[in-house]
Amino acid sequence: MAQKRERVFHRVLELPDGRKARVSAYDDGSVRFGLTDTPYVLQEAFLGGMDDEAVVMLSPGGQGSKAMHGRVQMPAEDDS
């Protein structure tokens, strides 16, 4: 049976434009991020090999982002 993770750190940061970013760390070494005012698109992700540092960059997905046009949508049903 897997043990439940315990959160050992939690901070909420208010960004200059009013959005809130949350970061939580857990006893198993995992880290969780939250950001208000969705949607966002993943712009960069370096998850290992760069000076032993992981970097994730999110961009607003609904404010003129070209990445928003790449969203996957369900195909229309065929009427035939």
Uncertain spans: none
Helix/sheet category: mainly beta
Q: State the shape.
A: extended
Overall number of structural domains: 1
Q: What is the end-to-end distance?
A: 49 Å
Strand ordering within the main sheet: 1-2-3
Question: Major beta sheet, specifics?
Answer: 3 strands, antiparallel
The helix content, as a percent range, equals under 10%
**Helix-strand pattern, N to C?**
EEEEE
Descriptive overview:
The protein is mostly beta strands and 80 residues long. The chain contains no helices and 5 strands. It has strands spanning 7-14, 20-26, 31-35, 40-46, 55-60. Strands 1-2-3 form a 3-stranded antiparallel beta sheet, with no helix packed on it. The chain has a two-stranded antiparallel ribbon with strand order 4-5. The chain starts with 6 loop residues before the first strand and ends in a 20-residue tail after the last strand. The model has no long low-confidence stretch (mean pLDDT 82).
Give the tags.
extended; two-stranded antiparallel ribbon; single chain; mainly beta; 3-stranded antiparallel β-sheet; 80 residues
Question: In short, what is this structure?
Answer:
Helices cover 0% and strands 41% of the residues. With 80 residues, it is mostly beta strands.
SSE topology:
Blueprint: E1 7-14, E2 20-26, E3 31-35, E4 40-46, E5 55-60
Antiparallel strand pairs: 1-2, 2-3, 4-5
